[in-house]
Specification:
- By secondary structure, the chain is mostly helical.
- The protein has one domain.
- Helix 3 runs antiparallel to helix 4 and helix 4 packs antiparallel against helix 5.
- The longest helix is centred in the first third of the chain and has 25 residues.
Length: 125
């Protein structure tokens, strides 16, 4: 049961980062403008499109790592990969919280931290 919960949480976090990839790489000037309304003036979206795409690519790497973990047969190795990529998500979320918006903590960092904690408590190293 815990294994299923962990898999669901990891999948949801991966999907969230795929969504962020899409938002920042392909929809920055449309949906991105709606999402970050008030955080950035409308006139700054076109000149920051490349910067946002770069951020989106990094989010894609986080998603790819989490999704990769589903294809690893060795359970211990799978946990290590999940721990690494979830830690990266948590650190990125905490940094975003400190530098951009407190909302990022609840959207990115907290789900990763909760999933990390569940994995650690469930691990039999």
């Amino acid at each position: 049961m815990i294994t299923l919960l962990i898999s669901v949480l990891v999948a949801m976090i991966a999907l969230e980062h795929l969504y962020i990839l899409w938002l920042e790489m392909f929809a920055w000037e449309t949906k991105g403008k709606e999402t970050f309304k008030g955080s950035l003036p409308d006139e700054l979206f076109p000149p920051t499109k490349t910067l946002a795409a770069n951020q989106g690519l990094y989010n894609g790497f986080l998603a790819a790592g989490l999704l990769w973990s589903f294809f690893i047969q060795d359970i211990l190795w799978q946990e290590y990969i999940r721990l690494f990529f979830l830690s990266c998500v948590a650190v990125a979320g905490i940094f975003g919280t400190l530098t951009a918006s407190r909302k990022i903590f609840f959207v990115q960092a907290l789900p990763a931290l909760i999933t990390l904690l569940i994995i650690i408590l469930n691990t039999k190293f």
